[in-house]
Amino acid sequence: MKKHLSVRYGTIQGCYWMGYAALMGYASVYLLEKGFTNTQIGLLTAVGCIVSAVLQPALASYADRPESPSVRTMLLGANLIQLVLIISLAATAENSSMVVRTLLYGASITMLMLMIPFVNSLGMETIRQGEELDYGIGRGMGSVAYAIASWLLGRLTASFGADMIPIWAIALTILFLICVFRFPFKKDRKKAEAEKEETGAAGPVDFLKRYPSFVVVLLGCILIFMSHSLINSFNYQIAMAKGGGSGEMGNAMTISAVSELPTMFLFGYLLKKKSSVFWFRLSGLFFVLKSIGTFLAFNIPTYYAAQPFQMFGWALINVACVYYVDGIMEPQDSIKGQAYMAMTITAGNVMSSLFGGWLIDAAGVGAMLICASLAALIGWLIVCLGSKEAKTA
């Protein structure tokens, strides 16, 4: 049963991250072909992420209430909205104005980022209910899917153009909808009611006061994810600066994603050796190494050589932070905690979007990568200072 449920959850992660690869990983490929500048791409993604960052805590607080719909139901609703947006984007691709494209793509990014804490909470809530699910295996399947999507999209866009990106996203959104609908999950309303009576509802200020060290960790994570997003959101521009194009960008993304697999699939074993906070802290160092390695790369082979740092960077933090948050939070705060952590990814995307495109237009890819390296270094140091041992691994 454990492997069966983990695989079913893994299909949800897989469909989500294959869609993410298209809408975020290949955003520059699509939008540059549609006439956007680097600065405009940055502003578009920033606004989409800002709206998501505002909505995430509010929706998470609502989801933690006993009377609210389940995490699964909320995911289905968000996914249906996402499907309508992407179909509209694909249907109006040739005839729409840039304003319409901006609104549709920005709203699609908002819905995509909004789903992250709910995808994570679906797995952790299932585990908390006593079901045998290995989150690391499920998230590892997401990375396998991201690697496949990155490789295929690189070839599809090189052969058929950027209009393949929304078509791909539509297909994956439909598959995600089916997988979430079929996942066996029911909200434990009696437990949620008991926890609410015990502690009462907490607003954002009360919540953050309850976990002061978590606030420090969030600030560090914003900078780490800013570094990560500067590289990921402008991977196409980086690949071109190193002498390649969309195909080489796809290859690099695939190498990165494949490098994540051992870490994610074996994270359960890693937890037996060290606590989640140890792996959480370690991950920041590898964001520093990857950003510096990408800056120092002088051609496509050395650009490829920087990608395996993903193994203990993004791969490690992606799983470790979920366990870390779940370990330091009271059960009634779990979804909110995951939402605030997901919000750091969103905030990092916002900062990279606001400054990344402008930096590239003003000073070039090299200047952008120097900023990515500094952000990763400062963020890592802050996380090391702020994180504390969890109540559970």
Uncertain ranges: 194-200
Number of helices: 19
Mean of pLDDT: 85
Strand content: under 5%
Separation of the first and last Cα atoms: 23 Å
Secondary structural class = mainly alpha
Largest sheet descriptor? none
Count of beta strands = 0
Helical residue percent band: over 70%
Order of helices and strands: HHHHHHHHHHHHHHHHHHH
Evaluate the radius of gyration.
20 Å
**Shape by Cα distribution:** globular
Polypeptide structure, described:
The structure is a single chain. The longest helix has 30 residues, at about 335-365. About 80% of the residues lie in helices and about 0% in strands. Helix 1 (about 1-25) packs antiparallel against helix 5 and helix 1 packs antiparallel against helix 8. The chain is mostly helical and about 400 residues long.
Task: Describe the secondary-structure layout.
Elements: H1 2-25, H2 27-33, H3 38-63, H4 71-91, H5 98-114, H6 116-128, H7 135-160, H8 164-182, H9 189-199, H10 204-210, H11 212-233, H12 235-241, H13 246-265, H14 267-273, H15 276-296, H16 300-305, H17 314-328, H18 334-363, H19 365-386
Structure at a glance:
The chain is mainly α.
